[in-house]
Amino acid sequence: MSPEIIFTQIQNEQINTLTGNVFYFTQLIQFLADHNQTISHVKAIGVGGSPIPEFLLEAIKKYFVGATVYVIYGSSEAEPIATRKVETLEMPFKGFCVGKVSPHLELFIEEKNEINVGKDSFPVGEILVRGKHVALKKDEDWLHTGDFGYLNEQQLFLTAREGNEKPIKNTQHYQLEHTLLNLKGVEKVAALALDTGFEVFIVSNTPEKELRNELSQYFEENIVSQFHFRKKLPVDNRHQSKILYKLLK
């Protein structure tokens, strides 16, 4: 990807609507920041494809002046499941906020556990959907998204991915990852939920002590058993944004 070419195309063609994923907008925002540029003629931006950190949404609003920014959550079988018009930022320890559920589908959370979100607690489970724009197999009543989350004040929050959903001290891995991602110097992070606690794989130049201090503000002590500092983490080829947890080492 060449952010310079994309920037030139946006300017020359006076593009007014953009959609993309975390990798796309991270690269584009970095280019704008490095060259002290902002864009004012883009009116609407949709971001999706993987969990969207709050700091990126904040940066998009800063560099695309006046644009209305939306988080779009869905899957190949159901798009969208939820959308969020970004007007205020959410605290990262809550998980990833994807907004209000589409009125054109039915959503059910198959409750399996309870997690802590600050001073509150919520039942959490796998997100299931069905409806007119949901592609189901013949023997299916619901689409199992593989995402775990909860609802609060009509807002859907993602807290874990299937296979790594085990709560550690009433916390799921997206809550931990999102909190660390918002720290300066943290590029990528993935937390594996193990019997001994979370093992965190991280691309960062931030000292471990600072990482633990940040986590201690929102989660129970010693929630992370070990930090593994890496030069890169495995991500999917399509979005370049989704962590491949099974390949972490």
Shape: globular
CATH architecture label name of the domain at 173-247: 2-Layer Sandwich
Tell me, rounded to a whole number, the average pLDDT.
96
Name of the CATH superfamily of the domain at 173-247: ANL, C-terminal domain
**Which percent band covers the strand fraction?**
35-45%
Distance between the termini: 27 Å
Unreliable residue runs? none
Radius of gyration: 18 Å
Q: Assign a percent range to the helix content.
A: 10-25%
Reported by name, the CATH topology of the domain at 173-247 is GMP Synthetase, Chain A, domain 3
What is the string of SSEs from the N terminus onward? HEHEHEEEEEEEHEEHE
- The overall strand count is 12
Largest sheet, described in full?
A: 9 strands, mixed
Summarize the structure.
The protein has helices at residues 3-12, 22-34, 54-63, 173-181, 208-216, and strands at residues 17-20, 44-47, 68-75, 78-85, 96-101, 105-117, 120-131, 143-152, 155-161, 186-194, 197-204, 224-229. It is built from five helices and twelve strands.
Could you walk me through the main structural features you see in this protein, from its secondary elements to its overall organization?
The protein is α+β, with helices and mostly antiparallel strands and 249 residues long. It has a domain of 75 residues: 2-Layer Sandwich (GMP Synthetase, Chain A, domain 3). A nine-stranded mixed beta sheet has the order 1-2-3-4-5-9-8-7-6. The radius of gyration is 18 Å and the shape is globular. The two termini are 27 Å apart.
